[in-house]
């Protein structure tokens, strides 16, 4: 058998332990899809694979035990799934057009979770639309609140939902439920003075705990949805580390611009001699330094006025 | 008597009323619910019928129009005080039958339990009711069980239908609309899915029953049940001085709740009803026993808002029915 | 319409310190008031506190105030000639007539003596209006004893027992031990007719009443005074309510027949 493994891998298949067998990774942007697409996954696993499915850390399905010869047939069958999940594609019926940029993952978000400050899956799907397909290795995850259930801080870009709480002192009855909750479970940003609550905005991490706790609705959510963008977290062999805050209180449009610019930055700075021509964005930032990265990705971005950019980052 | 008018004509009518009235109605505040992308329906000033949320139950009752959450009693300077100025307009309040009954309960506490409360009285004299009809009972409503599903104590009522609004006038003060006159009286809900029967003999013995202990482990003492209740009427006093000028300040009152810590705290660290179960007992007895002993009918109006709001899924309706079965077993 | 929440100014005529933390303030006041009633006393910008009337005289009332927190601390800083803000009097108070021509025993613990002091003053001055009048007053320690001058005066006309829970003051020669110990020995002439007033902290009330019941005093002849958190004093704020009873309206003085059924 003669097969170009580079093309195979780029097509979201993998070279496996077992010779002549492959496995395909199904992307589920935002980790959410209609249940009916499970039928396709099941069909592929039972008809072409070994009847099992592996659920990946990046919220996709990996279907192992497929004959390499059957790749084209599998690609034809998953077309309905690719269309249904609205994943961008260069050629129809040819499966996934790239594998470098990983599935954009999201916690369950505000469709279900009480804590979530935004609809994580919907935003993830909007990001996916902008960045996929692309061969550069970039990992992005979105999480509804600073609990970070998706572990966004282990990604190149972690997007954490923030909520800038709005206070109506007239509705406040001074029970201090918010003050106690903020102190115990969050940033300790609230103080009780003269029978009303004072918020220290420099300390506030926008978790939304005060809004959840207030029995009279004195605290409410801002209609303007904002995020904390944390960057360059990673696992792996070389220097695993957690992502650090890059921009606080940033809006969605700016996040999208910055991610787009990052691809241009990678294109410009990637080490052409890296093994396999692949270099992970985090290592590129290590080489160029944060300031170069920052200038590149913020080029022509008109940040929303509330956004606070970190001057320095030490990972 | 009722008129059939177009929606446009009705809004004109509201505009005319605005000369004399501040008009308050339930309004859906988008995104103002506790959870992301949820709304909160609260009482707000309105100018057009379209602003009024008529299809769902308001999360908070109309009581705050008569009993503001934070209310300044008077301002003081060095050694004198002034009472706050009250606007001279009347108030038109859009509300449902249960909430009209709720205000009757507030009247009992604020006008008939001891002396009259001057602040409440000022607002109360100004208020006129525009009844919102209920076609169908909402979740957790048990107004029929409490006898609050029907009222004739409204000054007007409305029934929007397509491009038209039927406007029933029950008080000459509300003026007239020179449109087609129809014979119409308001519709009321006659039964609810939730039915509550309150034991006649809620004795003190029952008050000491182990029954209440369950609530000590379930209730988190947040007070949501009280704050959404149209009949919970308690407040605390606060004195403050202004940061800018320590010689000036104000005395005010704010809503408070027997479910929340601190309600009975006294000097020397004494407090009563420390356990949530005891607080639940106190509130339930107040709503279904104590108040009736003073005023002849139950305080609870069965709007079901406490059951709607409790984050721990504690249901007062369920509690009352359980009490009933305990009493009957005895 | 008069606004019941608006206070009136009252001048401090005299301040009588009893202990480090208990002072009596004699305040200008003209108007009806009964012992056992209370005023909402305030200093604007700091807050209000319900305080019992401890003394009633021509053109003045006495307020015995213990410093325990923000408002009471601030009041203690005032000088004679200064001004306090009052509203009231509120509550039912003691009905003096009820005790006339009867045997009366008062048991008071600590500052509990304040609300009943007006009753003691009255009968100490008009001792012929009762058959017997006895006062048992208990304090924590010798330095907590209130109204020392009054005790000396009362001793001349009525039976007085003062006791302290304990003492490390060697110069103290008086009684020690809890009030309840003294109830066992006190002479009661007519158990079924004698009237008893018990005021003090909740625990003290409970045990003292139990002792009197053991001595054969009838429940309907026992009177107690309750303290509860109060914000309005006029039946609106709800803080003082026990069961279906508003302490500020129907109390703070209760007949024991009613009070015994209270469930907190
Ligand atoms: C009917 C009645 C009669 C009283 N008579 C006297 C008296 O004669 N002499 C006297 O010294 N004290 C009396 N008290 C107690 C007195 O009202 C409190 O000690 C006082 O309110 C404490 O206020 P503060 O601001 O100094 O303390 P704070 O700083 O307010 O607080 C200290 C503690 O007192 C509690 N407290 C606050 N307000 C009240 C209140 N209205 N009632 C009870 N506790 C409260 C607080 O919750 C806190 O736990 C009486 C109380 C009542 C209800
Ligand atoms: S939880 Fe709400 S009512 Fe309580 S102190 Fe905070 S803002 Fe005020
Ligand atoms: S809303 Fe529920 S949890 Fe909160 S105080 Fe009421 S019963 Fe307790
Ligand atoms: S003190 Fe407010 S109701 Fe009694």
TrEMBL record, chain A:
Location of this chain's protein in the cell: Cytoplasm
Main location: cytoplasm
Pfam families registered for this protein in UniProt: Fer4, NIR_SIR, NIR_SIR_ferr
SUPFAM superfamilies named among the record's database cross-references: 4Fe-4S ferredoxins (SSF54862), Nitrite and sulphite reductase 4Fe-4S domain-like (SSF56014), Nitrite/Sulfite reductase N-terminal domain-like (SSF55124)
InterPro entries linked: 4Fe4S_Fe-S-bd, 4Fe4S_Fe_S_CS, NiRdtase/SiRdtase_haem-b_fer, Nit/Sulf_reduc_fer-like_dom_sf, NO2/SO3_Rdtase_4Fe4S_dom, NO2/SO3_Rdtase_4Fe4S_prot, NO2/SO3_Rdtase_4Fe4S_sf, NO2/SO3_Rdtase_FeS/sirohaem_BS
Keywords associated with the record: 4Fe-4S, Cytoplasm, Electron transport, Heme, Iron, Iron-sulfur, Metal-binding, Oxidoreductase, Repeat, Transport
Record GO terms (molecular function): 4 iron, 4 sulfur cluster binding; heme binding; metal ion binding; sulfite reductase (ferredoxin) activity; sulfite reductase activity
GO annotations of cellular component type: cytoplasm; sulfite reductase complex (NADPH)
Pathway assignment: Sulfur metabolism; sulfite reduction
Cofactor(s) demanded: [4Fe-4S] cluster
Gene3D superfamilies named in the record: 3.30.70.20, Sulfite Reductase Hemoprotein, domain 1, Sulfite Reductase Hemoprotein,Domain 2
The reaction(s) this protein catalyses: hydrogen sulfide + 3 NAD(+) + 3 H2O = sulfite + 3 NADH + 4 H(+)
Gene Ontology biological-process entries: sulfate assimilation
Boundaries of every 4Fe-4S ferredoxin-type domain copy: 163-193, 195-224
Reported function: This enzyme catalyzes the hydrogen sulfide production from sulfite. It is strictly anaerobic. It is regulated by electron acceptors rather than by cysteine.
PANTHER family in alphabetical order: ANAEROBIC SULFITE REDUCTASE SUBUNIT C (PTHR11493:SF54), SULFITE REDUCTASE [NADPH] SUBUNIT BETA-RELATED (PTHR11493)
Family note: Belongs to the nitrite and sulfite reductase 4Fe-4S domain family.
Summary of subunit composition and partner proteins: The anaerobic sulfite reductase seems to consist of three subunits.
Protein name: Anaerobic sulfite reductase subunit C
Organism encoding this protein: Pelosinus fermentans JBW45
From TrEMBL, chain B:
Domain 4Fe-4S ferredoxin-type span(s) in chain numbering: 208-240, 291-319
Lineage: Bacteria, Bacillati, Bacillota, Negativicutes, Selenomonadales
NCBIfam families: sulfite_red_A
InterPro entries for this protein: 4Fe4S_Fe-S-bd, 4Fe4S_Fe_S_CS, Helical_ferredxn, Sulphite_reductase_A
Xref: SUPFAM superfamilies: alpha-helical ferredoxin
Keywords per UniProt: Iron, Iron-sulfur, Metal-binding
GO MF entry, a single one: iron-sulfur cluster binding
Gene3D superfamilies: Alpha-helical ferredoxin
Pfam families, A to Z: Fer4_22
Keyword Iron-sulfur among UniProt keywords: yes
Stretches of the chain forming a coiled coil according to its record: none
Protein name: Sulfite reductase, subunit A
TrEMBL record, chain C:
Transmembrane regions: none
GO MF term list: 2 iron, 2 sulfur cluster binding; flavin adenine dinucleotide binding; metal ion binding; oxidoreductase activity
List of residues binding [2Fe-2S] cluster: 232, 237, 240, 248
GO BP terms in the entry: pyrimidine nucleotide biosynthetic process
Cofactor annotation: [2Fe-2S] cluster
Family annotation (InterPro entries): Cyt_c3_hydrogenase_gsu, Dihydroorotate_DH_Fe-S-bd, FAD-bd_FR_type, FNR_nucleotide-bd, OxRdtase_FAD/NAD-bd, PyrK_electron_transfer, Riboflavin_synthase-like_b-brl, Sulphite_reductase_B
The FAD-binding FR-type domain, residue ranges: 5-96
Record keyword Metal-binding present: yes
Keywords: 2Fe-2S, Iron, Iron-sulfur, Metal-binding
PROSITE patterns with a match to the protein in the record: FAD_FR (PS51384)
Pfam families membership: DHODB_Fe-S_bind, NAD_binding_1
Cofactor, free-text remark: Binds 1 [2Fe-2S] cluster per subunit.
NCBIfam families: sulfite_red_B (TIGR02911)
Name the UniProt record assigns to this protein: Sulfite reductase, subunit B
Organism: Pelosinus fermentans B4
Taxonomic lineage from the root: Bacteria, Bacillati, Bacillota, Negativicutes, Selenomonadales
């Amino acid at each position: 058998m003669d097969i170009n493994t580079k093309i195979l891998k780029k097509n979201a298949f993998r070279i496996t332990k077992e010779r002549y067998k492959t496995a395909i990774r199904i992307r589920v942007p935002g980790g959410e899809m209609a249940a009916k697409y499970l039928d396709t996954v099941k069909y592929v696993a039972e008809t072409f694979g070994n009847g099992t499915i592996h659920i990946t850390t990046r919220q996709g399905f990996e279907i192992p035990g497929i004959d390499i010869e059957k790749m084209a047939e599998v690609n034809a069958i998953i077309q309905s799934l690719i269309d249904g999940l609205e994943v961008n594609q260069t050629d129809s019926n040819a499966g996934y057009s790239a594998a470098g940029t990983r599935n954009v993952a999201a916690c369950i978000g505000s469709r279900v979770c009480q804590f979530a400050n935004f609809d994580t899956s919907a935003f993830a799907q909007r990001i996916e639309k902008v960045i996929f397909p692309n061969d550069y290795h970039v990992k992005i995850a979105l999480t509804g609140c600073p609990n970070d259930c998706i572990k966004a801080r282990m990604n190149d870009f972690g997007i954490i939902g923030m909520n800038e709480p709005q206070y109506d002192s007239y509705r406040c009855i001074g029970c201090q439920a918010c003050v106690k909750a903020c102190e115990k479970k969050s940033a300790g940003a609230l103080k009780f003075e003269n029978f009303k609550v004072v918020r220290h905005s420099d300390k506030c991490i926008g978790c939304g705990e005060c809004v959840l706790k207030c029995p009279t609705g004195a605290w409410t959510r801002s209609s303007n949805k904002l995020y904390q963008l944390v960057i360059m977290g990673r696992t792996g062999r070389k220097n695993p580390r957690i992502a650090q805050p890059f921009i606080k209180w940033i809006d969605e449009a700016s996040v999208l611009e910055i991610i787009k610019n990052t691809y241009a930055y990678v294109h410009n700075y990637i080490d052409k001699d890296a093994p396999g021509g692949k270099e992970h964005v985090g290592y590129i930032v290590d080489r160029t330094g944060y300031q170069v990265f920052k200038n590149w990705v913020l080029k022509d971005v008109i940040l929303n006025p509330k956004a606070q950019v970190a001057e320095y980052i030490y990972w | 008597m009722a008129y059939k008018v177009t929606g446009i004509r009705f809004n004109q009518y509201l505009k005319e009323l605005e000369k004399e009235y501040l008009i308050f109605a339930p309004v859906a505040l988008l995104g103002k619910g506790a959870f992301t992308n949820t709304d909160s329906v609260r009482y707000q000033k309105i100018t057009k019928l379209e602003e009024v949320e008529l299809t769902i139950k308001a999360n908070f009752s109309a009581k705050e129009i008569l009993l503001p959450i934070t209310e300044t009693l008077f301002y003081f300077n060095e050694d004198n005080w002034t009472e706050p100025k009250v606007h001279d307009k009347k108030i038109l309040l859009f509300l449902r039958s249960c909430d009209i009954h709720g205000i009757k309960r507030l009247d009992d506490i604020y006008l008939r339990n001891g002396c009259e409360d001057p602040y409440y009285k000022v607002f109360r004299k100004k208020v006129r009711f525009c009844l919102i009809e209920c076609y169908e009972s909402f979740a957790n409503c048990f107004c029929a069980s409490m006898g609050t599903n029907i009222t004739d104590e409204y000054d007007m009522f409305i029934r929007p239908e397509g491009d038209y609004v039927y406007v029933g006038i029950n008080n000459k003060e509300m003026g007239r609309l020179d449109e087609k006159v129809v014979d119409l009286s308001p519709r009321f809900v006659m039964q609810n899915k939730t039915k509550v029967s309150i034991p006649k003999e809620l004795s003190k013995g029952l008050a000491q029953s182990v029954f209440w202990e369950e609530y000590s482990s379930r209730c988190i003492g947040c007070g949501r049940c009280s704050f959404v209740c149209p009949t919970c009427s308690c407040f605390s006093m606060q004195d403050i001085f202004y940061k800018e000028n320590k010689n000036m300040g104000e005395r005010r009152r704010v809503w408070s709740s027997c479910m929340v810590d601190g309600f009975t705290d006294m000097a020397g660290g004494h407090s009563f009803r420390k356990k949530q179960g005891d607080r639940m007992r106190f509130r339930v007895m107040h709503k279904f026993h104590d108040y009736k002993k003073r005023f002849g009918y139950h305080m609870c109006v069965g709007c079901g808002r406490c059951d709607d709001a409790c984050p721990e899924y504690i249901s007062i309706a369920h509690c009352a029915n359980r009490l009933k079965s305990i009493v009957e077993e005895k | 319409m008069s606004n019941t929440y608006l206070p009136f100014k009252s001048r401090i005529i005299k301040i009588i310190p009893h202990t480090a933390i208990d002072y009596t303030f004699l305040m200008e006041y003209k108007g009806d008031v009964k012992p056992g009633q209370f005023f909402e006393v305030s200093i604007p910008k700091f807050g209000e506190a319900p305080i019992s009337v401890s003394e009633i005289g021509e053109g003045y009332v006495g307020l015995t105030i213990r410093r325990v927190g923000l408002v009471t601390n601030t009041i203690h800083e005032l000088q004679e000639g200064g001004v306090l803000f009052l509203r009231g009097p509120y509550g039912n108070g003691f009905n003096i007539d009820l005790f006339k021509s009867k045997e009366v025993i008062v048991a008071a613990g600590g500052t509990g003596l304040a609300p009943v002091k007006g009753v003691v003053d009255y009968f100490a001055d008009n001792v012929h209006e009762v058959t017997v009048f006895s006062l048992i007053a208990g304090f924590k320690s010798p330095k907590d004893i209130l109204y020392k001058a009054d005790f000396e005066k009362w001793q001349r006309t009525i039976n007085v027992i003062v006791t302290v829970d304990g003492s490390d003051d060697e110069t103290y020669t008086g009684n020690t031990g809890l009030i309840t110990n003294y109830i066992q020995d006190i002479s009661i002439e007519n158990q079924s007719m004698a009237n008893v007033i018990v005021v003090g902290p909740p625990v003290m009330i409970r045990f003292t009443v139990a002792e009197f019941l053991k001595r054969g005093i009838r429940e309907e002849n026992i009177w107690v005074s309750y303290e509860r958190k109060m914000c309005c004093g006029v039946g609106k704020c709800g803080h003082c309510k026990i069961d279906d009873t508003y302490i500020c309206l129907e109390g703070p003085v209760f007949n024991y027949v009613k009070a015994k059924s209270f469930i907190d």
